Amino acid sequence: MPTIFIEYPKCSTCKKAKNWLKQNNIKFEERNIVTETPTIKELTDWLERSGQDIKKWFNTSGLKYKEQNLKEKLSNMSDKEKIELLASDGMLIKRPIIISDKGIFTGFKEEIWKILI
């Protein structure tokens, strides 16, 4: 399985993560989270495989998250509704996302990404 790097190209954290991947000679396929927003099916699979709580998949520092007052709304939504919401707009999804045969990680934390090597 190829390693997939899902990013928003203008995101500084995504740029830092991409540089880290290159410096560590990790081959990856790039995917723009806005132009190729993950589908409901993909998100459902990734969430299950990641073992993370669905709340960790939301870009809580993003403008769209704040504009939609999602901090308040998410507690009243089912997981299915949350996944549908994430699939509706890539900017709501925490990034970058790295998908490899060793795991799925959201956000960039070097100590966690070292697992990929």
Description:
- With 117 residues, this protein is an alpha+beta fold.
- The protein has a single domain (4-116), classed as Glutaredoxin (3-Layer(aba) Sandwich).
- Helix content is 39%, strand content 14%.
- It has 6 helices and 4 strands.
- The chain has a 4-stranded mixed sheet with strand order 2-1-3-4, with helices on both faces.
- The longest helix is centred in the first third of the chain and has 12 residues, at 12-23.
- The two termini are 14 Å apart.
- Quote the distance from N terminus to C terminus: 14 Å
- What's the CATH class label? Alpha Beta
Largest sheet: 4 strands, mixed
- Shape designation: globular
Low-pLDDT runs: none
Average pLDDT number: 94
The CATH topology label is Glutaredoxin
Question: Which value, in Å, is the CA radius of gyration?
Answer: 14 Å
Beta fraction: 5-15%
Helix content: 25-40%
- How many separate domains? 1
- SSE ordering: EHEHHHHEEH
Structural class: alpha+beta
Please identify, by name, the CATH architecture: 3-Layer(aba) Sandwich
**What would you give as the CATH superfamily?**
Glutaredoxin
Number of strands: 4
**Tally of DSSP helical segments:** 6
Strand order of the largest sheet: 2-1-3-4
